[in-house]
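2024-03-11 09:14:02 INFO worker-7 job=invfold-0412 stage=load source=structure_tokens
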């Protein structure tokens, strides 16, 4: 990330009034290989080609801040791979992951799983090795890796046993669920710490977890909020991002207390609605429909929809124009340019 880009993110995280609303986008392996015309396995396995792809999107879109920032990821497989989840590679799409248990009652045994070592287990040591090299490559072009990322504990649990079985399991076996979530919370913290050590320039974290959007208010406060707060409290950094794009606002009033100061959420909720729920201490990162508009819409539709998002929000503080989620496969570059135009047009009003 360039110095000027990082300064913009810092100001947004502090809810400062901006002269110009920035445009940013969470991008990873579902979008980047297809956009640059690269085999997905090459993207994952060839660091030189990976680096060229990240440099190309920055050269093509210099006015977009890409988040979390030179993200080294293997789809969603890095964290669950350390627990023995099998994963499969494909030439034209991201990695898929197999569950290690198949029934909610298996939570009774799964809760005793051993805490992995991120420097030794699964795909994580490969990610760390890449990050060490990527950090030096970024410095050579005058940039730094400023933000690292991890899947949240409920997200990792869902990859281990499936969403349906997890949601049933924590209701039937609450004590065992808490035991598993405590282990996974430690796992996420250890994983973030290891990435920070590998990078050496990190000043922000991104936590991604959609499963919190499947819980009731009472279940969220018991089974999710304390663990997410523990993770963010462990990293008192200036930038603390949360991604959850499920259409359930159960966590919204608690995000500031959780410790996040930038929130990426679903396009199914309006900017003004979410702003009222989360309060003025959290910067909103959104809120353009990533598939139906940014990917399938025309540039004219994207510009109009993006402008409408910002007009609904109504101010230039505490906001970053983005998708209501990550970049979808097949999103055309001209639509990203249209999003940028909308941000500039709103800022000039």
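2024-03-11 09:14:09 INFO worker-7 stage=emit residues=349
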């Amino acid at each position: 990330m360039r110095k000027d880009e990082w300064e913009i993110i810092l100001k947004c995280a502090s809810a400062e009034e901006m002269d110009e609303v920035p445009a940013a986008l969470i991008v990873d392996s579902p979008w980047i290989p297809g956009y640059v015309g690269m085999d997905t396995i090459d993207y994952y396995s060839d660091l030189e080609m990976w680096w060229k792809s990240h440099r190309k999107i920055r050269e093509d879109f210099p006015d977009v801040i890409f988040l979390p920032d030179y993200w080294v990821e293997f789809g969603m497989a890095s964290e669950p791979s350390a627990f023995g989840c099998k994963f499969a590679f494909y030439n034209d799409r991201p990695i898929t992951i197999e569950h290690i248990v198949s029934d909610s009652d298996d939570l009774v045994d799964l809760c005793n799983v051993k805490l992995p070592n991120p420097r030794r287990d699964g795909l994580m040591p490969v990610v760390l090795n890449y990050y060490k090299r990527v950090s030096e490559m970024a410095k050579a072009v005058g940039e730094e890796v400023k933000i690292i990322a991890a899947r949240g504990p409920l997200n990792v649990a869902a990859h281990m046993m499936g969403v349906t079985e997890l949601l049933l399991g924590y209701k039937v076996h609450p004590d065992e669920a808490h035991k598993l979530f405590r282990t996974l919370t430690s796992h996420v913290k250890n994983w973030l710490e290891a990435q920070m050590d590998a990078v050496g320039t990190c000043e922000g974290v991104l936590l991604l977890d959609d499963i919190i959007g499947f819980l009731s208010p009472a279940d969220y406060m018991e089974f999710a909020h304390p663990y997410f707060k523990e993770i963010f409290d462990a990293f008192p950094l200036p930038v603390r991002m949360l991604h959850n794009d499920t259409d359930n606002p159960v966590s919204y009033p608690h995000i500031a207390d959780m410790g996040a100061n930038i929130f990426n959420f679903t396009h199914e909720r309006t900017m003004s609605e979410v702003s009222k729920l989360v309060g003025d201490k959290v910067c909103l990162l959104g809120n353009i429909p990533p598939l139906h508009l940014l990917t399938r819409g025309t540039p004219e539709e994207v510009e109009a929809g993006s402008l409408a998002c910002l007009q609904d929000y109504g101010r230039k503080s505490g906001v970053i124009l983005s998708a209501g989620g990550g970049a979808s496969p097949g999103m055309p570059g001209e639509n990203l340019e249209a999003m940028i135009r909308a941000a500039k047009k709103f800022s000039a009003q």
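2024-03-11 09:14:09 INFO worker-7 stage=report msg="The beta strands are 23-26, 64-67, 87-88, 96-97, 147-151, 204-208, 239-243, 262-264, 283-288, 319-323."
2024-03-11 09:14:10 INFO worker-7 job finished
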